[in-house]
Amino acid sequence: MPEHRPGRALTADAPKRTAVPTTARRLRLTRLLAEMIPGAHTLRVTLRGPARTWPSPHASAYDDCGRRLPLNPPQARTAARWIIRACPEADWRQEHDLDLRTGRLLRVTETRNAAVGGR
User: Fold this and answer.
1) DSSP calls for 60-116
2) pTM, two decimal places
C-alpha cells in the first residue's frame, strides 16, 4: 500500500484544495517583496536578465521617485520568480511593472503611456 503523506489526497475523488484568488495572492506577494526590498515602490520583471542571451527571470527595483535600487543577483532572480509564479495570466514575453503599494501589474508599455498622460 502506498505511503500516505499528510496534506495529499489518497484518491482522485477527494475534494481539491481551493486556489487563493489571484488578487489576494498578489497583495500578499507585494507585502513580502516590500519587506525583502525596503524602499521599493515598483519592481520591473523580465525574462531576460542583463547580459543574458537565454531566458533568465530578472527584477529591477525602483523607489517612488523612479531611482533604481540596488539588488543582488539572488534577490533579483527570486523576486522575478515569485512575481511570475503569482501572475501566470500575464504575457511574460514582455516586461511588466508591479506596483508594491497597490499590487497592480502592468506591461511596461502601459506604464509608460500612463506616465505621459495616456498618449
Assistant:
1) EEE-TTSPEEP--HHHHHHHHHHHHHH-TTS-TTS-EEEETTT--EEEHHHHHHHHT
2) 0.70
